[in-house]
Amino acid sequence: TGFAGQVSLGHAAFLAVGAYTVAIGGGTYGLPIWLTLPLAGVVATIIGLAIGPFALRLEGLYLAIVTIGLLFLVEQGLRNGLAVAYGKDYLNVPMPLGFGVRDGGLGLFRRATELGGLTVRPDHKIYGLFVALTGAVVWIGRNIGRSNLGRAMMSVRDRDLAAAALGVDPARTKLIAFGVSSFLAG
After folding, report:
1. Is 113 left (phi over 0), alpha (psi -120 to 50) or beta?
2. What's the pTM?
């Protein structure tokens, strides 16, 4: 439920939007992964903020049902959109690093690399990338939790009415929480 207490069972939709944004940006346009990852978060945030005003009026089980509906809507949209754009419902995507490294170095995720006598396999490179991303997300989450925004989210989670009496705008806080969580999922 997170800091704001919103139940979202459809965050896989934001994950899918982010994944396809990275796939299309890297595969079709040749953008580096370091550019497409934040872009994926931005696209997922746009979709999350578009759904956010509808989600503000719902709580608990009703919000969970709407977010599951979003999941099916995004799945159908991505599947049909890919079929129209590419003639198939899947993508085979390269993973360019984008620092001019195409033939070797740590930037090539499909081949092993020698570093001072140590062989770094492709799965180790991707694991290292995911560890770095996970560390960044945990750091962001902890800092949000300790900020004024995080305390506002927790007060809205505990009691909307009391938070509003203290000057916290529950609608704005829930919308920001939905946007941040969709960015991180994307």
Report:
1. beta
2. 0.81
Q: Are 157 and 146 in contact (CB under 8 A)?
A: no
Contacting residues for 169 by C-beta, under 8 A, at least 6 apart: none
Decide: 102 and 96 in contact? Cβ < 8 Å. Answer: yes
Q: Using the CB atoms, write b or e for 102-122: b if 16+ within 10 Å.
A: eeeeebbbeeebeeeeeeeee
Cα–Cα dist 100/119, whole Å: 21
129-148: per-residue pLDDT in tens? Answer: 889 989 999 999 999 999 99
Cβ contact 99:42 at 8 Å: no
Tens of pLDDT along 55-108? 777 777 788 888 888 889 888 888 888 777 776 666 766 665 554 445 445 556
